[in-house]
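Fresh eyes needed here. I'd like your take on this protein's tokenised backbone:
***
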Amino acid sequence: MVLADQRSRLLAGVVEIVAAHGYDRASVESIVRAAGISRRTFYDLFPNKSEALLAAHAEALERLSTPLSEPPLLQADRTTQAVESLRAVLDWAAAEPEPALLVFAHPFVVGPHAAFCRDRFVERLAPVLRQLRRASAVELDPVWEEGLLGGLAELVSSRLIDGRAAALPTLAPLLIEFALGPYLSRGEARTFAL
């Protein structure tokens, strides 16, 4: 119980310090100070700062996945599922900007781990768009979903870094129309976006 609490506080400290200063400027000392744990406890839990960041990223990605796993969303038709998933991503990032910075993985924030973190985000959401592609029988290269989600991650990341997290949900109509465009007619995409 104590170790689990210390680990939880440590990961929260990683999120706080990395979000505020970026990975390169975050030190183990600043992380343990923010977490209220000892340096020895840090090293009992993780061999280095890199592993602690990856664990914090995994936890943040899991928190993002929670709203995407809600039964009403999973039971919706493919188009509604894609639309509501995008809305859920933007709402979550607006509500939890610090962990969202880890998930959306701007290199300025997470340093050398950016590509790994971005890939894990794409892997988590790409199936929603792939199902939409299959349901609409549109012939697109599967790389389309990766590119679309990578662009979304970059857009969200830049808003988070600029301190504009609260405005992210207002981007939903534009992003939904953009995301649905390859699968539906422009009019249909716009209808779902509203």
Observations:
- The mean pLDDT is 86.
- The first helix runs from residue 2 to 21.
- Residues 104 and 153 are 5 Å apart (CA to CA).
- The chain is about 75% helix and 0% strand.
